[in-house]
Amino acid sequence: MILLGLLNLKTFNESSFSSFVVIFSLAYPIVTFLFLYLWTHAKAHNPIFSTTNLLFDNEFIYFHVNKNETKLHHESIQKVVSNKIYWLLYVSKGQFVYIPKDIFYTQDDFNKFSVMINT
């Protein structure tokens, strides 16, 4: 976009269309960058980018996000989709929990969790 604006800069004031192309192509990347920067740093979007801790025992999976705890009974998992690098635990038809497979500290924890969600 910036290259398009710079190439049309010599025709800037010849017509209203050329002026629009120059202004739009030079302003669009700046406005897009500012929008994305402000969107990622907005307080309302902090839960999306915050760290989630996962704990589990024989009955529940506990998620700790920003001092809030959510527990999920392993029997409430309707479907498990497994990939090489993650699991998707479907709680309802349109709601799932994404769990990467590389978050476990030991192979024993990985195996216990795998057995728990697949039963």
Give a nutshell description of this structure.
This protein has helices at residues 2-7, 16-40, 46-49, 107-118; strands at residues 52-56, 60-65, 68-73, 79-82, 86-90, 96-100. With 119 residues, the protein is of the alpha+beta class.
What would you say this structure looks like, in words?
The chain has helices at residues 2-7, 16-40, 46-49, 107-118, and strands at 52-56, 60-65, 68-73, 79-82, 86-90, 96-100. It is built from four helices and six strands. By secondary structure, it is of the alpha+beta class. It has a three-stranded antiparallel beta sheet, with no helix packed on it. A three-stranded antiparallel beta sheet has the order 4-5-6, with no helix packed on it. The protein is elongated and about 75 Å long. The protein folds into two domains: 2-44, no CATH class; 50-118, PH-domain like, CATH 2.30.29. The termini are far apart. InterPro entries: YcxB-like_C. Residues 56-113 form the YcxB-like C-terminal domain. Keywords: Membrane, Transmembrane, Transmembrane helix.
- Rg of Cα set: 24 Å
| CATH arch. level architecture of the largest domain | Roll
- The percent range for strand residues is 25-35%
Task: Work out the helicity level.
Answer: 25-40%
Main beta sheet: strand number and arrangement? 3 strands, antiparallel
- Topology order in helix (H) and strand (E) letters: HHHEEEEEEH
pLDDT average, as an integer? 87
Strand order of the largest sheet: 1-2-3
Please give the count of helices.
4
Shape designation: elongated
Tell me the span between the first and last alpha carbons: 53 Å
How many domain units?
2
CATH top-level class of the largest domain: Mainly Beta
Structural class: alpha+beta
| Count of beta strands | 6
The fold-level CATH name of the largest domain is: PH-domain like
Unreliable stretches: none
